[in-house]
Every structure is written in structure tokens, then in C-alpha cells.
Structure of Enoyl-[acyl-carrier-protein] reductase [NADH]:
Amino acid sequence: MGMFDGKKGLILGVANDRSIAWYISKFIMEQGGVCGFTHLPDKADDERKKNRMRVQKCIDDFPQQAKFLVPLNVQSDENIAEVMALAQSEFGQIDFLLHSIAFATLDDLKKDTIETSREGFKLAMEISAYSLLAVCNAAKGILKPAKLSDKREVVESGAAVLTLTYYGGERIVPGYNVMGICKAALDSCMKYAAYDLGLHGIRVNALSAGPLKTLAGSAAGVGDMQTVYDQMSPLQRCVTHEEVGRTGAFLLSEMSEGITAETMHVDGGFSEMGSPGRMLDKY
Ligand code: NAD
């Protein structure tokens, strides 16, 4: 018996086998869940169709559980609607929806934050924060509503939505720059979406992960951050992809029923430190 037996959902944001979304969805599928996947559209001149191919390679090991793989650019409402229509025809209603998407140009990430370009700011905000609202709105018709008894006890669980955030949206993390501002906006989008969808018993949460080496993570400079986490966090180490994957799956499962509008930190306790602690011993 797996904790996701009979559960179906959408996974947005696998780029390759290092993606956080992959670790969450792999755990879900190992626990019996069925998933529909999206990939970033391939460029017209890329004959190798690398974006698709990388995700296809991941899901090849799960032929029963990975139901489809289609392109998605969250900048297009039409494209989002197509993905939701496909999910509806495959699954009817869905039990979980993972949003694990962010983007800012390297040029903007490398600048001082006050030098962020107007276009770069809009692009980063659109893909990294607004897209959560757009996706929740497009999915609201297929996200399974909760069923409550006369005593307002849950008889059938409602769907759960999860997004991925980072501490750089709460505090200044030099180098995270414009993406920190996007994460602050995303955290707020998550809470307002939790309010709107809460009326139907649908939950929306965020997982704030410690630094992990992924495509997006490398662009945001996780290497330096990992050194600090190793020395400063209460656990004196960085978290692993597997740890983030398991907690992500928990937040998308019935096990977390009752939790909504919450940001759960999976960061070895780093975000609760008020001074460098043991890191000072090294100097
Ligand atoms: P990743 O590069 O594997 O995932 C980012 C995903 O965003 C990719 O799948 C990419 O295709 C997708 N994406 C970008 N632009 C898109 C668009 N226009 N339309 C649709 N999809 C688009 O890296 P990751 O680290 O797994 O990132 C996933 C999420 O986790 C991001 O929100 C990231 O900010 C967050 N996060 C990462 C870390 C870390 O250290 N890696 C820490 C905390 C939070």
C-alpha cells in the first residue's frame, strides 16, 4: 500500500533528473501515484528536442505511472489551458498539483538588485510568481474539492497545491537578488491562493528548500550558499534532494491535511538562526 495509491496529479517543473520536481514526483510515483508531466517547449531549431528528451529519460522508468508529457510555457494562458484540458481528459479531477518553476535571466541575476532591468524584472515575476496564480486559476475546475460531513469533518480530502520557494524572499541573501523579490511575491501569491481555494477545501502551501545543485540553483549561486549552510545551520549540513522530495510529497498528500497557506522550511534549520553560531568558531 502506497500513500499515493489511487491519487492523480500534475507535475510542472521537471527539467532533468536533478530537478526538485523530479525528486517529489519520483517519491509520489513510488508510492503508487499517477502523474502528468510538462517540459519547457523545445526551440524550433533544436532538432534533438533536448528539454523534452531530458524529462522523457526521467519518466521512462515509470511507464505505468507517468501518463503524459507535454510542453508548457507558463507565459501563455492558452498553453496552460491546454495542459489543464489534457489533465481533465486523462484524470477527470486531480488530487495534487506541483508548481516548481522559476526563471530570471543570468544577466539580471548577476547585477546588483537595484540595477535589474525593467524587462528582466517583469519576465522573472511573470514566470516565477504570477504563474502560480495563473495555474491555480486554470486548474480550479479540476482540483478535487473536499467533501465535509454535517459536522464539518473531512469525509473526502481535497486536492493539494505546492510551490517551491527560497529564504531569499524573506531575508536579504546577497546574490539571490531579483529572484528574492520574486520569491517574496510568490510566498504572498501562495497565501492568497490558499484563501481563494480554501473555500473548496483545496490546500496551497510552499516548501522553502535549502540550496540544492540544479539548473536553476546553479544560476542562483547555490555553491556559495551550501558552504554557509554546512557551517551555520543547526544540522551542520545541507539538505538532500531526497529530503526535499519526501517533504514535498508529504505536503501534496493527505498526510498534511489541515496544513494550508504555510511555508515549510526544509533547510536544516538555517532560516531560524539569528547569528552565525558555530560558524564563528572557524574564524
Ligand atoms: P530546475 O531548473 O530543475 O527547475 C526549474 C524549472 O522551471 C525547470 O523545469 C524549467 O523548465 C521551469 N521553467 C522555467 N521557465 C519556465 C516557463 N516559462 N514555463 C514553464 N516552466 C518553466 O531547478 P530547481 O532547483 O528544481 O527549481 C525548482 C523550483 O525550486 C524553483 O522555483 C526554484 O526557485 C526553487 N528552489 C530551488 C532551490 C535550489 O537550491 N535549487 C532552493 C529553493 C527553491
